[in-house]
Write a structure and sequence with these properties.
The complex is a heterodimer.
Chain A lengths: L16 H22 L11 H5 L1 H6 L6
Chain B lengths: L3 H44 L23 H30 L8 H23 L13 H28 L7 H22 L12 H30 L9 H5 L1
Helix pairs in contact in B: 1-2, 1-6, 3-4, 3-6, 4-5
Classes of the chains: A mainly alpha, B mainly alpha.
Bound molecules: zinc ion (ZN).
Zinc ion binds next to α3 of chain A.
Chain lengths: 67, 258
């Protein structure tokens, strides 16, 4: 077994409940953004199919099923 | 050490640039394919226009009606979509790096970032790609879009689980000998086994019409794979550069100076 990496030498802060809360919030917002690009059909954006059609080529080329 | 905010800002900015460049790659390699596919789609649509209910698709590019977004708008939208997708990935990547950094057995933050990007690329891009290769317009049955979306997301999650299983196995087999090839064989076997079992269980979906040109299909698929490869490669390298205090400021202007 390799010894664990010493804590002081890495670029990340120590884990804390506060950090985990921010991490969770970030992931939630990022997933919402990804959803808008990849899947939204007006439910979240309230733009009808406008956003869906605008993102159309990106969706295909980012590998997301479209039609 | 950096704060979470510092890591997050770097992830978001790197993601934005990675997405923008991936969008540029997609524009050059993928847009001509999408145009060709849409031409086929429109030819099919006008050939079937006498059929009742030909407009049942969840959306279509049929030329008869004024489209909601013009083709030029969609070409611009490609850059927007890729950039926003890059920002989202960059944010998630920064979180993943923050939470997993201490579990990665390397003293180098750069190797940790590159390893994490490789893992994300394998799980999120490669595993779904080989089971459900992406399709251009004119391929795909609108009635199965929900099923295809669910199975796509499922393969993505399974891909990440497979990578995790590979890492866990490579650590477990160390007890039999701490040699690089033992770790690689053990990890690789667990990853491949997980993926193969998932591939066998997941439903087969093939909606490519017999008449759709195979060359165009694969040109599109490779453009899509290339786009995502550019995105993940730049995300990994860019993040590694952006969090490294030794990175020359001139090489990564805003990110390091921020
Ligand atoms: Zn489409």
């Amino acid at each position: 077994m390799t010894a664990p990496v010493s804590t002081s030498s890495v670029a990340v802060p120590a884990l804390s409940p506060r950090l985990l809360a921010f991490a969770l919030l970030t992931v939630g917002l990022a997933l919402m953004l990804a959803y808008l690009v990849a899947f939204d059909q007006g439910a979240l954006s309230h733009s009808g199919m406008y956003l869906h059609e605008l993102m159309h080529d990106g969706r295909h080329l980012l590998g997301v099923p479209c039609h | 050490m950096r704060t979470f905010g510092s890591l997050l800002v770097r992830g978001l900015i790197v993601g934005l640039f990675a997405g923008l460049l991936a969008g540029t790659f997609a524009f050059v390699t993928g847009e001509p394919r999408i145009d060709s596919a849409i031409a086929i789609e429109e030819a099919n649509a006008s050939a079937h226009s006498h059929d009742a209910g030909s407009g049942s698709g969840h959306h279509e590019h049929a030329a008869e009606e004024e489209p909601l977004v013009s083709r030029d708008g969609q070409r611009f939208g490609l850059f927007l979509a890729a950039s926003l997708y890059g920002v989202a990935l960059g944010g998630i990547f920064a979180v993943g790096f923050t939470l997993l950094r201490r579990r990665l057995r390397t003293s180098s933050d750069s190797y940790a970032a590159l390893g994490l990007a490789a893992a994300g690329y394998a799980g999120i891009v490669l595993v779904p790609f080989f089971k459900y290769p992406p399709n251009p317009p004119a391929v795909g049955d609108p009635d199965t879009i929900t099923q295809r979306t669910v199975t796509y997301l499922l393969t993505l999650v399974i891909g990440l689980l497979a990578v995790w299983a590979g890492v866990a196995a490579s650590r477990w087999v160390q007890r039999f000998g701490d040699l690089p090839w033992i770790r690689l064989a053990g990890g690789g076997a667990a990853l491949v086994l997980t993926v193969v079992v998932a591939y066998l269980i997941l439903p087969k979906i093939n909606e490519v019409p017999d008449t759709f040109p195979a060359t165009l299909l694969w040109q599109f698929r490779l453009a899509s794979l290339g786009t995502q490869t550019v995105l993940w490669t730049l995300l990994g390298i860019g993040f590694a550069a952006a969090i490294d205090r030794r990175t020359p400021v001139a090489a990564a202007p805003k990110v390091v100076a921020a």
